[in-house]
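haha ok so turns out i had the wrong file open the whole time. this is the CORRECT one, sorry everyone. sequence first:
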Amino acid sequence: MDGDHSNGKGAALDEEFTDYLVANKLTPLNLFIYMDEHMSRAFDPVQLGSIELFCKAAELGSFTATAQVLGVTPASVSRSIQRIEARLGVKLFNRTTRSVRLTHDGELYRAQCQQALDQIAEAERALTGRQRHPKGLLRVSVGTVYAHHRLVPLLPGFMAAYPEIELELNVSNRNIDFVEDGYDLAIRLGEPRDSRVIARKLEEASVGVFCSPDYAARRPPPTSLDALHQHDLIQFITPSTGRPFPWSFIDDKGLPVEVSVHSRQRVLEDVLAGLGWAVAGGGLFQIYHFVAAEALRQGKLVEVMAPFAGRSRPFYALYPQHRHLSARVRAFVDYLLAAVRP
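then structure:
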């Protein structure tokens, strides 16, 4: 009869399972470990419990500590790790009598496993309705200009609205790898060319040409695009290409144009230095209105060439295409959209 364990083998398995439950707490993880230890002869799936256990051991750096936290025996931890290593054919930990430390292969495996576990947890939260209360760590990478003059002033409001979210902000202009660097979201200028990344436009940021009142008094602003080159210009060099960033205008026919400026005054990496240079009276500088707004209010800058203004550049929120969009990311993006769009 199906399910009859009256034979010797079935009785032995029942006794073995009973002994296991007596020695360990009855938790989903312990059931996964038991199945991993006793059913792998019949099946060879990726064992979720063992993966969760491996990630916890990698985090704590100790099999004993992992066993205590998860409520299992140290022997179960060791056996599960050994089976993963045997299945993969690589060594995941360097073991000593005092601690365990991930190998290079172990680091790579942990990054992928932790991402998979996070996605499973997010999927469960979505199904159980916990999306209404986003929680956990959110890691965001953002460029310096957008961080200082757009994002950071909005963060206190976001953190107050979502008290269960932890926010880790990386402010840098370098390109990132979502998998290797572990970021959930990035904010960058321009639409990405990488098809593996989903881009959601946050805003079109208008640009203008600015200078100090002192410079404007000494050098009357240009009244045509051709006259631009007669002035002291502060040129920004794009970090990714090493080339001068073109200035954007609307010409006298109402058409958008890009003007390549050449100057003996150049700024690399940090565009905010160009703003400070203009405030100090160094010449004309094109920058976003949201960056120049405070200096304009304080009378440190004036806008010139207004008849040729009207151009903008897009900023996007980026996240990996293959990754489940967590409640944390969705809440963050929605909050930004509501804050920056008119």
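Residues 1-32, 38-46 have pLDDT under 50 and may be disordered.
again sry for the mixup
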